[in-house]
Amino acid sequence: MTRTTHQHQRFLSDLFPQGDCLFRPEELLVFGMDASRLDARPMAVVRPREARQIAELLQYAQTERIPVYPRARATNVVGACVPADPRRTGTQEPQGIVVSTLLMDSIIDISPDDFVAVVQPGVITRDLQQNVERQGLFYPPDPASLNISTIGGNVATCAGGMRALKYGVTREYVLGMEAALPGGRMLRTGGRCHKNVVGLDLVRLMTGSEGTLGIMTEITLKLLPLPEATASLLAGFSGMEQAVQAIRNVFRAGMLPAALEFMGPETLDCLALRRTPPWPGNVRAALLFRLDGTSGALKAERRRLESVLQSDADCTPVWQAAGSGPQEEEPLWEIRRGINPASYLAAPDKISDDVTVPRGMLLPALTDIAATGRKHGLTILTFGHVGDGNIHVNIMHDKSLPGVREKAVAAKKEIMNTVLSMGGTLSGEHGVGLTKAPYIDNQLSPVERQLMAGIKASFDPEGIMNPGKAY
Amino acid sequence: MTRTTHQHQRFLSDLFPQGDCLFRPEELLVFGMDASRLDARPMAVVRPREARQIAELLQYAQTERIPVYPRARATNVVGACVPADPRRTGTQEPQGIVVSTLLMDSIIDISPDDFVAVVQPGVITRDLQQNVERQGLFYPPDPASLNISTIGGNVATCAGGMRALKYGVTREYVLGMEAALPGGRMLRTGGRCHKNVVGLDLVRLMTGSEGTLGIMTEITLKLLPLPEATASLLAGFSGMEQAVQAIRNVFRAGMLPAALEFMGPETLDCLALRRTPPWPGNVRAALLFRLDGTSGALKAERRRLESVLQSDADCTPVWQAAGSGPQEEEPLWEIRRGINPASYLAAPDKISDDVTVPRGMLLPALTDIAATGRKHGLTILTFGHVGDGNIHVNIMHDKSLPGVREKAVAAKKEIMNTVLSMGGTLSGEHGVGLTKAPYIDNQLSPVERQLMAGIKASFDPEGIMNPGKAY
After folding, report:
1. Do A195 and B429 touch (CB under 8 A)?
2. Which CATH architecture fits A6-100?
């Protein structure tokens, strides 16, 4: 049923004229992979320029029962953009149509009166942020990929980021959307109101659904007033325990920083491989804070944060603080962004996870993950948005060495089990995609799966939307 | 099918022993009304003490196709707790079983490490807030009813409140829940993690579903660090236009107050009927701000707010500000809380709405509502959470006078239409319930209704949960 026929090709070429429909193997290759490095070959790639085309495609695809795989910049690290359904084993046939939303990349409206932005799904998150900031407005969600990922992808995965601690995740900023659904129905739900409780919450149901319900064609986002100033502060600690205690002290002082990033001992070691670190050798864990607010308030807030951190005798003194102004702060965040490139100096291959635990389980989780690394003789980096209990785990390994890939996979499984036994979740930000799908029955109950299947069926009765992903 | 038989009575009495099952007319009367003042007579009221009883009830009710109406303190103003299904016309038969969650009122856990609270649905919101605040924690959602309404009801309606501007609505604080579903299935979804993107978002789907999908038996809520201090400030303006301009100025300065309440001219007049107002006669609109944060930051923030407000020559000078400390601030908020009692000095009857418009449509909406009042010769109070575009509308009238009720209803309809034509929503906080159900097809599209019906069916295939409500 998913083999490309001439009829299919003709339909697609008519609907997506002038090079907006791709069939050549080298083109299909490009659109078959995402940042998970998994790949599969689709039967075609289409690049719609307007919502109507997507609706017509989804009408046809439902009738023909052709799988449809939406995609934008494909920065997804769990394979959610890969055009493959692992449940269809034994087939090497190309498995469906990839829909790239990259030609739908207009910022339709930025309203300083309504505090909303209306965008097409292919808009790069950073572009939106820069545009709204020029008008004194603020779109807080800041996934690490924001320079290259799109709003459509951010909404499809309910992306988090560093500022989620104070400002919440993408879900909190989606006010409305237009989406094409299988069968060609157009869903318009929510709107420009900051509050709305009429009917079931379809807006937040679509958010984080990983392309399994429909394809968003327009998204209305909530904006905030742009904080006048920001300040950043990096503090070093003698160990993970001391760093976690410092987090507690900050919260206990009634402070909720805009960002609170953690770097564990293995991560600091890795950063030192790339560049002489600015911290003394006794620093074995670090916290990177960002505060924001009006200028006067921010000064007081920064003094308060410094005094809270310095009040703890167990703390290595605060070693560096950058004042207000993005330029002054940049060197600190450059360190944080250096983790990914530095990680490959430890080993050439990586299994990357973004487990999340209840905040109080942070230290036990970090300790357990480090022990798992030692047990398998692998460097496992831990860092990330600890204010949310969200730990990025990089299992570094060299898969060219015999037995090492197996050890890395075993370590991943152990970490998943540890996290779930602590009341944690397999993913705080990345989603399930293909790579975590084998584990979700350890987290989701049969009742949850049954309800999700029922919901899916009311959006997508033939199961054509991104099949085999997520749930 | 919903007539009480002896068999029904025996089943219910066995499952809810020792006075936890009520059949007497005078008891049924009490549990048949909510704050909408609508009422209906159920065939029985049950008061479960544990989740298992609710699951068994919902198994039985599904088999017997008996409607089930969940309820806690029934502060709902749109009839969502009234045991009636208006689609079943012509029957005077009692229509189902009311489930009161008031005996399930335990705070199960407050964790200063995880920053979560786990509660049963019958816990009063204020009780939870006071308990968490004693431990330096903060549960921001503060619907006006918080002294008497429950967490279960707050989650079922996705309650808002004054602090929603900075902190978001109830949805943003629900991390996990346990719920009994029709057929007796138990749903446990989400948990204690502050971030979680595994599977479709059932937690937020249940939030705001007005009791139409199942009955929550346990709720896990996100907590924040308690801000060290708060300050409040009341500013008077010569008119609505000047007040709305002041809101713009505050946002433009990069400030996001914890609360920003508006009181229109008719509301100020009404307050003056009850008590000599503290503002001069030329004040025709007022804004009430609350700021919060660490003490030092708050002082700077307050100075900044005062300077922003005073910088506008059109503004009547700021006339009263209360410093940090709840006691000092209380008189200002006492004025805000006085609106409801004062309203009845204008007229004995009220139609109360909570429409919401895109923030930029605030002034046109307020102006239109005032014109509607003048046209019908009715006093219409406008006040509320204008930072969110959420306007509380009280259509005051005396229904004992000939033709007046009809005028009030006509005014309501006109306001609904005005709001929808501005891209607004019929409800920002209260929900749809019975009273707004006749209007929802003006807001929701057939595709949305179809999807909601499909979702409903996967939770509640026989349609026994709070039938006739919401969507």
Report:
1. yes
2. 2-Layer Sandwich (3.30)
